[in-house]
What does this fold into?
Amino acid sequence: MSVALAADAGLALLILGLAVWTSIARTAGGAVIGFMAYGLLVALVWVRLAAVDVALTEAALGSGLTGFVLLGAAARLPRDAPAARPGWGLRLAAGVVSAAVAAGLAAVVLLLPVSAPTLAPAATANLPALGLGNPVTGVLIAYRAIDTLLESVVLVLALIGLWSLARDGDWGGRPGALRSADPSPALVLLAQVLPPLGILVGIYLFWTGAIAPGGAFQGGTVLAAMWVLTLVTGLTRPPRVGGRGVRLLLVAGPALFLAIGVAGFWLGGAFLAYPAGYAKPLILAIEAALTLSIAVALGLLLAGPPLAQSGPRA
Amino acid sequence: MSSVTLFGLCGAALVGLGLFGLIVQPGVLRKILAFNLLGSGVLLLFGVIARRGGGVVAGNGSDPVAQALIITALVVAFAATVLAVALLRRLVQETGRDSLDSDG
Amino acid sequence: MDSLATLASATWGGPLLVLALMLPVAALMLAFVLGGRHAERVVLATLPIGLGVAVAIAAAIIHQGAALHYDLGGWAPPLGVSLHADGLSATLLLTTAVVLCAVGLYARADFRVPPGVSEARAPLAFWTLLLAVWAGLNAVFLGQDLFNLYVALELLTFAAVPLVCLSGSPQTIAAALRYLLFALMGSVLYLLGGALFYGAYGTLDIPMLSARLASGDPIAPAALAAAALMTAGLLAKTALFPLHLWLPPAHAGAPAAGSAVLSALVVKASFFLILRLWFDVMPASLTHLAAQVLAALGAAAILFGGVLALRQARLKMLIAYSTLAQIGYLFLVFPLVANPAAAPILDLGQTPGAWTGGVLQLVSHAFAKAAMFMAAGLIAGALGHDQLRGLGGIGRVLPMTVFAFALAGLSLMGLPPSGGFASKWLLLSASIETGQWWWTLVMLAGGLLTGAYLFRVLAPALSTRGPPLTLVKPVERSRELVVLGLALCSVVLGLVPFSSFGLVQIGRLGATGIGLP
Amino acid sequence: MTQSSLLMAALGTPVLALLACLWRPVRERMLGLLVLAPLPALAAAVIALAGVGEGGRWMLDPGLLQIGLVLDRPGALLLGVAALLWGAAGAYAWTYLRGKPNGRRFAVFWLLTLTGSLGVFVAADLLSFYLTFALVSLAAWGLVAHDGTVRARRAGVVYLLLAVLGEVFLLLAFVLLAVASPGDSLAIGAVVAALPGSPWCGPTLGLLIAGFGLKAGLVPLHVWLPIAHPAAPMPASAVLSGVIVKAGIIGLIRFLPWDAGLVDWGQALTAIGLCTAFYAVAIGITQANPKTVLAYSTASQMGLVATVFGLGLAVGDGAAVTAGTFYAAHHLLAKGALFLAVGVVAATDARRLWPVLAPAGLLALGFGGLPLTGGFLAKLAVKPVLGVGLVGWLGTLSAIGSTLLMVHFLHRVAANPAPEAVASAAPGLVWPWWVMCLAALVLPWVLAPLGRLGPWSDTLGWAALWGGLWPVLIGAVLALGLRRWGERLPKVPEGDLVVLFSNAGRVAAALGDALERADGWLRRWPVAGVLLLVLALVLWGAMLAGTR
It folds into this structure.
């Protein structure tokens, strides 16, 4: 057994251990902390699997922002006794079928074809025509642009869904989930120092996405995190949900994407096609708009449904 | 056994763990956590597939198509988590309970 | 300027598919940005255009006698993603557009921005979510790539869940949460299946996958696992018995217009993908046993849902359980289409009547169920409740609504002349032809149960005894007309001779390859 | 006007009247217009029977499926007499229901039932037949349950339950017919021709006889008749017992393969018919309500028709159809008239009953075969089919039984005059009754050539007259005995066999409770979650098993 394999085995065991801990931790808060650590280790696995783009996304979104949302929820759970667990018969049955599915999947993994089919060559081969160096970005923004377009709409939709959970009287107010009564001075300091740096990192991630790991999702996530930091400490206030400006920002990315896609009918020969020679600048424009929209959407998703001006509730 | 297969088996185990948690955990927050474990297990399996495919041509790469799909799926999972958490918070606000079945 | 695409292909009329997919997306963004009273206007302006696009797609398919196809971005699969519309897709696009037009007109009264404010929560959410549901449905019906379909399904789920709890009551919040979590479990299984397909065959494009599955011998273990997991996940989203835990409270809890969309259309999207999976991706793997398992669950749904509907105290719950039962009929298609006895018919280049029957059931149920939920909404709005106990004599007060409800019920029961009758006739014939007489008994018993639970609504509604009803709110005649129109649609389907349903069979990928391995 | 367009008008008129009901002023007046709705059908039937041309024919798609309407001899005969009764009963209904609540609703259900009822006689294909049959079956619920009393509502539920059961039998039978038929054509003649060679011939015939027998009131599916007929308003009872049961008869006529000589099925139908004929008399004489007695009489008479059909089916003899149709046509007229008479009597005081009772008595004894009545001709028409063997004797015995039952009826109806000292029926009730009474007495003579009766000398010979008379005399003597000792008979509830199902409701409720509990369990989150995975594993296994 090589050292690398041993290290990977240790990583896998650690991940499984944290996953189990997350499942059995006594407090919800503990479980969420466990999950965040777990997410960071999974990001490490992504690096080991040579998927740096995914690793960045996992660390920022899968571990960071998701953990943040879950922590916020864990703090508001009722303190009294949790609901009863299902009876032992059901637990046993659940265990048996879950284990069976896992075992079946393990067998499938072991039986995967020796010569793995792949689209990697095709994806790489077409990159020069797009002026891109990062094939992942090529997939996201060109080959499978429709997925990304729908994806950015999904974020807007998730936000609409979130806002629809407001109370009728609270409509038009500002999102209130992040307002903390008195943030610790350390956090305030962090919120003053970190954002300029974070914004730079976010922009860099978006910009470098064209040639190296990074892109709109990763960059947007970092920007959103910075915004959220300032929101939590009260340095900035979230916008009112009724404002047209914030909505324009939210749809700017998908709308520009759609507009350029439609223009592709005439300029590129097909919907979502880029005219030869102009691909790179158009892609960068879309990425920029998407980064902005994603940052705003993620930030607002963390900020929760709107609350009336009268003050925070619950 | 290679590292890639190892992570594949790890992914399969995470899927099993996630499914089990999603089914038996009584609290909704724990269910959401289990859903995230399940999701990351599935994506890990996908990543293993991507690594195998990428390894064939580039020697030390990962299939960019699969990577793009994984990133998209991660964003979807995040959106789902946010929506579920928002519903949970509203449920706790309205009823004071954090479980779906009154009997577990 | 030259296009980057070289391998791309598109049929004449292909851009229509892009239009069908992007129209609701663009409208969604516009409605969201403009907000307030404009959201409703955007929806009502877009819906007729969408209906026109759906008609144009159907016309183009009939005219060409072949499916429409469009490679997005000029990138051909497997690297790119393409859109595809065969007769079945076109039928469902059209059904969706018609139902949504009716829902849009109907919902105006319920989701009006109250005077004095520029925007309110429920109207903005409803109108944008309606567009999102539409976008999701069209994306599902046009999708040709398993991962693209995953995104489409999630779009649909995220649009459907908030519709459930628009009223904000604790019960509907719990129902929405239950729906979301179970649907997510289904989505993850679907995604897992997609990953396995990709791992085994290196493509997610349905025709390519199908070709590689057919040529690759033997079938990869991953593909079998993928099909099983995907099917299970989609069944969870379709709420096939016994995975229906989320459906009754969710469909009964949503506002009437939302219930209509959820019950008539949203559950059909995941069913449509099951059809795609079994008949287009891997027709050869639909074993006799697997088909019988699916149909057995469908049969159980028919009987169980029927009995439970019979025992509900609330009208909307009754209709929700009726949906559970009606979904069951759809699953009888599997053994009836993929049966050894049906193979000779297929060799002649025809699709068995069971296919047409199944699609007809899907469409007529969509019209009928939307009409029923909307009629129930009018009744509940007028009375202030929807307890069956208190419906005595409603037929005198709202004759047109009750008439529309009865017409829709006629179709659900499968009485002639209605789409439901035509579909049941075809399914019954197919089950006799293929020697599977036991499904006929289930279908007939299901018809009896349907008749019984409709009787429970209609008999008191037509009675004249008891104190006269007092309405808490008048009912607009225009809304009654919308409901009646939709109910008539489900009836009129039955008046079209069977031979005219050729559309649903155009361009089926697996039309010639169905049979036992 | 061509016959085809007249045929269209026959069905189109009630449909148009229904559509017109959407308009309020028409709806208000519709009850008074019911009398007109069946007149085009009457005209179409008269012209067809007069032998002008080939009868009407109207096809929606003549090429492929053969969906449409057609008017042939048996259909025209039944259509004509049915239209007459619908017209008379419609006129009667106007007076009967005027000023009472819910007249508009009654008119709507009346027109729906009328459309279906006329339609079954002219439907040329499976789908049209099923549609019209379903219409007449289901819409008649509105007539049965019209009164809205507890009794009427119970009758409505029992009626609907059995009607829907019948629909289910027929739907399955029709599907079997269509599948077994080689061509695309759905014309009844084409699919029935293929029936004897069908692999599902037995089940198809069984379902057809069950479905149509239920509608015609054959034992043991007759139970709806004695429950529904008394509960309905008087004109509705008349059409229920007169016309609607004939939907079952025309179904048997249309769908049984007369040329095939199916001995077993013929004998079975004969046996069912004879059982019905006697069983219904036996139960009928224990009943007190004159309408219930009439309902049992209807079942008994339809039993005899079924006997005739069974004999014909066994030997492959189409003449039985002619005879049975003629018998059924007479029954339609006479039974409709008698139901109207019950209403007239109920509105007349005790001292002025005789002008009603005397002609009613003639009609009633006609069912026993009293010479020179229409019933006498009907009995003569079926006599050759029944033959002189055991079945022939049983036929005579049933004539005795019918007389007994009908004398019992006259006794019961005479015991229920209007309670007031001075009362007389409104003219609007009396003249439709007279029209039907005359029609029942005279029309069979006019239509006799259609019944393939022998020469008049035979028909009116002493032997024939005496043969008709003596069973009536014996029946009358037995009736005296019944009057004397009838008190000792057990009291059988209306709908006799239904009592066997009196606790079906409790069983169903218990079953429903159990399923509801099961639903509660299945909808628990962990249960559904486990089931989801089980399902995935089962499908996985099913495919693994299939590919090995």
Observations:
- Confidence is low (pLDDT under 50) at residues 310-314 of chain A.
- The longest strand of chain A covers residues 174-175.
